[in-house]
Amino acid sequence: MRRQERYDKVMAWFESTMPAAESELHFASTFQLLVAVMLSAQCTDKRVNMVTPALFAAYPDAEAMAAATVDDIYGYIRSVSYPNSKSRHLHAAAQMLVERYGGVVPDNIDEMQKLPGVGRKTANVVAAVAYDQPAMPVDTHVFRVSNRIGLTRNSRTPLETERELVKHIAPEKIPTAHHQLILHGRYVCQARKPRCAECGISAYCQYYAKKGGAV
After folding, report:
1. What domains does the chain contain, in order, with CATH numbers?
2. Which among 55, 59, 133, 204 would be 20 to 30 A from 91, CA to CA?
């Protein structure tokens, strides 16, 4: 099967089964999305969603969080992974947003990465989700699923995976495709025990073919 044909078939299946795929993080503004994504690093969305209601009630915007202390923020997020560094980054990012960007999260990926604690993946998520830009965040699920299916070919880094996916997926479909790949990896193409028997794209999957399936 040609590579683009595999892309077309996989994306068509995603569109038919998950046409409105979206983030499982809970947020009510672009700032809150940024905070939730920063908290989700090496942490589950479920855990993040447990702490953000109280956090956002106390600090609904950048101005409120910037006026808090690192210890204040830590008190709300101590149950997530790496709460010490994340509380420092959240506070510093909020201060920079207020001082440099008028409290508004910039819609430019390079500008977002100037914020403390914000890397390329986080910036891509905000660009795709909040600003509907053709940005492809690559987390562990997207990286794994893309390589398994054969959408990428032995990509060694998230950036390599991002570049390959963006090259083959239509720009207007990229923001949703990001969530489709994540959800597929989270619930079907799992790391240790992929559920191939329940997978609707096994016929197009290189991993399944190597296990004795058909492509």
Report:
1. 3-21+136-210 (1.10.1670.10), 30-129 (1.10.340.30)
2. 133
